[in-house]
Amino acid sequence: MVRPKKHLGQHFLTDKNIAAKIAGCLTEKVPVVCEIGPGTGILTSELLKTETTRELHLIEIDSESVEYLNEHFSDPRMVIHQADFLKFPLESITPEPTAIIGNFPYNISSQIFFRVLLYRNSIPEVAGMIQKEVAERIAAGPGSKTYGILSVLLQTWFNITYCFTVHEHVFNPPPKVKSAVIHLKRNQVDRIDCNESLYFIVVKTAFNQRRKTLRNALKQLVTQRLPEHPLLTKRAEQLSVEQFIELTNLIDPLR
Fold this sequence. Notes:
This protein has helices at residues 16-23, 42-50, 63-72, 109-118, 132-139, 149-157, 196-208, 214-218, 241-251, and strands at residues 12-13, 32-36, 55-60, 78-82, 98-103, 125-131, 158-166, 171-172, 179-186. By secondary structure, the chain is α/β, with parallel strands linked by helices. It has 2 domains: 6-186, Vaccinia Virus protein VP39 (Rossmann fold, 3-Layer(aba) Sandwich); 196-254, Orthogonal Bundle (Helicase, Ruva Protein, domain 3). The chain has a 7-stranded mixed beta sheet. A two-stranded antiparallel sheet has the order 1-8. Helix 7 (196-208) crosses helix 9 (241-251). It is elongated, with a radius of gyration of 20 Å. The model has no long low-confidence stretch (mean pLDDT 93).
């Protein structure tokens, strides 16, 4: 068997029923599915059951897991890549839309979602198991204390659903926190009505100083005096996606 490695954030799922529920979260009939961190393949086996025509790519950084998967799985639809997903060129797999799924390594789960944002136009949906608090943060709305950078950025381009909570005892080794499965489905937004690169900067800068009003948090981004505007009297956690777009347009000409 494969030994779970702490430095890779590995907690192997052991419950097949939960693996089947995660696999069932994918709703789009996309031609390609990419599983991140398959480990010993409990989710992989369920994915191979769900759709006979899908092409399944496994991205696994751990050589011991790759060896195990090669020994225990033989399916012409499946391709194993020994690689770090955070550095993996997703476009090298296929030009087709690609769904992302996995029991994501907990130590890089937020980074995985930033990577999803980078490839958002080729990813119609994501189903991932992550720490419960991260799932709650991503799904949170304005006004919540857990609402943050990932909440805003992901909700700009995806519809978010918190699917279900997963308890510690179904993992080896059991994590110290509860987990949750979250589903992202690409919305109809192709282009936002503002400077996109500045939008990312505004959102990140606002939340990095979330206790400050936006006037004080964002003054470092401009060379002119900020005007009187109701949005600037608020804090980052109070703004919706639409208001962050409005705020970006307010900031843009003052840079």
